[in-house]
Amino acid sequence: MTKNTQVFSHQARVYVEDTDAGGIVFYANYLKYMERARTEFLRSLGYHKPALFDGMQFVVRSVELVYQKPAVLDDILDISANLTKLSKVSFEMQQNIFRDGDLLVEAKVKIACISNDVKRPLAMPEEIHQTLKKYVC
């Protein structure tokens, strides 16, 4: 099995609704950009309902963020979603946000697989696990 080493990237524009009174992206909104990039990564693999699958869900377990520089109104951002670790019940992604190649925010995001009904850890379906395995860098 060949591993895909290409980094997934998603673009987003900064709108007024994303900023604070000074025109700088509100700090929590970077998480929204990252969520969209993770969702689009899963969509690119053929999972068109990435937050909710048959009997299971992927949920954020933890996030470590480092803010380097601010994004501002009307910037075009490139948000990466790079799968770095995978187990049967979770995975980790390195996510970075860039503007014109300049690093603005970096994050490590841990995602857990849980059951829909009792919200406890659950092994993800083998087919999903095998697909994700190809993208671990």
Description of the structure:
- This protein is of the alpha+beta class.
- The chain has one domain: Hotdog Thioesterase (Thiol Ester Dehydrase, Chain A, Roll).
- The protein has helices at 29-44, 126-133, and strands at 8-13, 52-53, 56-67, 76-86, 90-99, 102-115.
- The chain has a 6-stranded antiparallel sheet.
Task: Give the helix/strand layout.
Layout: E1 8-13, H1 29-44, E2 52-53, E3 56-67, E4 76-86, E5 90-99, E6 102-115, H2 126-133
In angstroms, what is the radius of gyration? 16 Å
Number of helices: 2
| N to C succession of SSEs | EHEEEEEH
Category from helices, strands and their pairing: alpha+beta
CATH class: Alpha Beta
Largest sheet: 6 strands, antiparallel
Strand content: 35-45%
Estimate the mean pLDDT confidence: 93
Tally of discrete structural domains = 1
Low-confidence parts: none
Which fold name fills CATH's third level, the topology? Thiol Ester Dehydrase, Chain A
Strands of the biggest beta sheet: in what spatial order? 1-4-5-6-3-2
